[in-house]
Every structure is written in C-alpha cells, then in structure tokens.
C-alpha cells in the first residue's frame, strides 16, 4: 500500500507540475476531467431515474453537479433574457454549437426552462452508461440523413404542442469555433411550424478561453442570451426560408455582440 501511495503521489505531483507549466497538458487534463466527471455525474443518479423514466426532470441532478464542475474548470457564465422564457407552452429552442462543452450550457438551461428535451445523434445512445442516462431524461435520438431525422423530429410535434415540451436543437448541425454561425438546417423550423410553436433562440458567446487547434483550455466567461420568442403560428412551408434567415440573423447579431463583450473582459483581465 505504501508503494502505491508513493507512485500515486508522484503521478499527481507530475500532473500538477504539467498543468501549471504547459498549456497543452492543461488542455488535455481539463478535457479528461470534463469527460470523466460528466460520466460520473450523469451515471450515478441513474437508479433514481427509473422512478420516473424519460422525464426531463431526471436531468436536474446531473445538471447541478455539472455546473459545479464548470466552476471547478474555470468556466463562469451570465444568463440574459430570462424574461423571454414562457413555460406555459412548448417551443423549439435553437442554440449555436461550439464544442462538447456545450453540455455545460444545457446544464445551465435545464432548471431555467421547464420540460426541456434535447436532440442528439443516435450514436450517443449506445455510449453506456452516459447514453443510458441521457435516454432516461428524455433525449430524442436521431440518425444521420435528412429524411430519417425529420421523421423522428416530426413525432415530437405532439410533445411540444400538447405536453408543452421544449425541444432543444443545434441548427448548425456540427460544432465549430468560428466567428460566423454555420448555415442553419431546416428540420427544426419544420417542427416548429407543424406544432405551431414559437422558436426560442439561445445564443452562447464565443469560447475565447478554448482553442482546440492550439490545444488551449484556459479560464473564462460566457454569456448565455435567451432571445425573445419568434412566433410561427399562421406561417406555412413557403415561409421557411424567410424564417430561417430571420432567426439566423438575430442569433448572429447577438453572437457577435456578446462575443465582443466577453473578449473585451478577457483582454482587460489579461492586462
């Protein structure tokens, strides 16, 4: 046992030294902690989830601990626009997609928006036990391919319309760290029209503290902005293109503004 303690102590000391002096080591250590802690906090409450299977409320416990993890890794956040949340009806919630760290954004939103249901790729469902946990809190899994994905999403119409669910999607379809949002896919907008539900844009400022190309993962702040609802009642499929364009323009404007704000704060802190 004493030999184990010595080896463990040496390994920990080495990790601490590398974390302190190397930005690349810090990047990998932080992401490893993010993955391991996310798996633990999502999986440990799994037995409790069987008492109310597929309920969005099952995500509240993992979300609480994930928020603590974010603080531990040096990620802070400010939420704007809470007055725009309407829990009396369902909605299609659209978020920009930057990194796997978006999981922290979801952890912030879950207690702020009732009955949230996240849309994720089917492959996540088979990553046991994390995938099992996400399944138990009502995640909607979709396969690759526009037609199959649209078919699954269309089945959520009743959940949005009758059960007042909020369906959370990343309309860009893939994550990126650029200054411009990628073109939005139309699936989410078709669902909103079919359910006659409003669209709730949510914009997350750029992760200036994260640079995957240079393997840098520092500390920093993000601004999560919940924009006013965009109504779809009375619109038809002929209005889809205009609706997509309007939504993306509003989200891009907010993304540019809040990203500039967090960058300015980061620069002042550095100086």
Automatic annotation (TrEMBL):
CDD domains: LPLAT_AGPAT-like. It comes from Danaus plexippus plexippus. Pathway: Phospholipid metabolism; CDP-diacylglycerol biosynthesis; CDP-diacylglycerol from sn-glycerol 3-phosphate: step 2/3. Its EC number is 2.3.1.51. It catalyses: a 1-acyl-sn-glycero-3-phosphate + an acyl-CoA = a 1,2-diacyl-sn-glycero-3-phosphate + CoA. It comes from the Eukaryota. Belongs to the 1-acyl-sn-glycerol-3-phosphate acyltransferase family. This is 1-acyl-sn-glycerol-3-phosphate acyltransferase. GO terms for molecular function: 1-acylglycerol-3-phosphate O-acyltransferase activity. Keywords: Acyltransferase, Lipid biosynthesis, Lipid metabolism, Phospholipid biosynthesis, Phospholipid metabolism, Transferase. The HXXXXD motif is essential for acyltransferase activity and may constitute the binding site for the phosphate moiety of the glycerol-3-phosphate. It is an enzyme of class 2 (transferase). One of its GO terms (cellular component) is membrane. GO terms for biological process: phosphatidic acid biosynthetic process. Pfam families: Acyltransferase.
